[in-house]
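Input sequence (230 aa), recorded before submission:
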Amino acid sequence: MLTLYSYPKLFGVADNNGYGLKVYAFLKLAGVRFTHEHVFDASKAPRGQLPYIVDDGVAIGDSETILAHLIEKYRLTIDAQLTPAQRTTDHLVTRLLDDLYWVMSYSRWKDDRFFPAVRDAFMAQHAQIDEAGLNKAREYNAQRYYFQGIGRYAPDQAYARGLSDLQVLADLIPPDGYVHGPNPGSIDAGIYGFIANIHYYPIPTPLKAFVSDHPNLVRHCEAIHAAVSR
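Predicted structure, token format:
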């Protein structure tokens, strides 16, 4: 049996991390049976990062590596009809989401205006987490942000990066259907992983305001959410 290990849910979203939610949504959309284990400790994960899967006893990390493994092993056809140009688009959007990840994370852990709401939500929904642990996580993330670079930005500069990423997604996603047509593909699962972690959070970040102001982003997110929540 295939098992997905990822961070816990928050605000009704199956994983509070965009990458774990991306893999979760992909598995659901592709019709692959799996069990889902929520963990906080990533020490047993490949490269010490979540999400990862264990498939027939083999641990596989990195969301893109996981998807490639699943497509090959289970002969999934979710992206079979894509043209070379569409596959190039998917690659570029995947890298854009890597950039958006840092701004989204910054909004939760670095910005003094929004961290208290995130902290309180974690403690309310996960009794095993206390304020000391969350403050320690905040300190750890601050180091990550500094070395990645986003932590050296003023908040308005950091959000400008994220808003420009969201604008690309708003320009890409059609009013109806999905990125490449009437059926969702793996790139839709990836976009959902990040947009859902903004849209469903009742925390008024600039990212949240942008998503709320773009009906196509909201519609796309809610359509995928409905499909993977069955």
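Checked by second reader. The chain has two domains: 3-73, 84-228.
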